[in-house]
Amino acid sequence: MENLSVYHGPIGKEEGERRLGQDGRDGSYLLRNSDSVPGVYCLCVLCSGFVYTYRLHKDDAGSWAAETTPGVQKRYFRKIKNLISAFEKPGQGIAIPLLFPVTAQRRAHTHTGAQTAGNSLSTTHSGPDSYLQQQPPRAAQGQKNRNKKEVQQALG
């Protein structure tokens, strides 16, 4: 199984935004469950005080893709960690490259401050028009973890 330290589980949109806001650096990112679509992950990145959310979904062939800005060719990856690596580079159809991972195990309170213990792992999909969501830091509640077998299949 792939170990993703940036995966925070079913923390909900508001908590994800709070954690990114605590770090405070443009390019800080984390992965969480989607609040609204079961079976889909949300890749959340901080840019200019806003949290941009990109839904990650798995296709029928078992490859992962992110919903990015229109006009950017969709890319598919066998593992989520490969998708994250690709989005660390500029020009990938997201607001800012992924620069600073906010890990679940050692979640940053500030980018220079203390760290705390974190979470476990689960999965989360979206509609065709939900490639990008821009929200100021605030939001809703998360959803419950999916079963362990589904999680292992999604990440490994």
From TrEMBL:
Domain SH2: 6-102
Compositional bias annotation for Basic and acidic residues: 11-23
Biased composition (Polar residues): 112-136
Domain of life according to the entry: Eukaryota
Keyword Coiled coil appears in the UniProt entry: no
UniProt keyword terms in alphabetical order: Adaptive immunity, Immunity, Innate immunity, SH2 domain
Gene Ontology biological-process entries: adaptive immune response; innate immune response; regulation of immune response; regulation of signal transduction
Entry annotated with the keyword Transcription regulation: no
Pfam families: SH2
Region (Disordered): 1-23, 109-156
Gene3D superfamilies linked: SH2 domain
Signal sequence segment: none
PANTHER family, per database record: INOSITOL POLYPHOSPHATE-RELATED PHOSPHATASE DOMAIN-CONTAINING PROTEIN, SH2 DOMAIN-CONTAINING PROTEIN
Name the UniProt record assigns to this protein: SH2 domain-containing protein
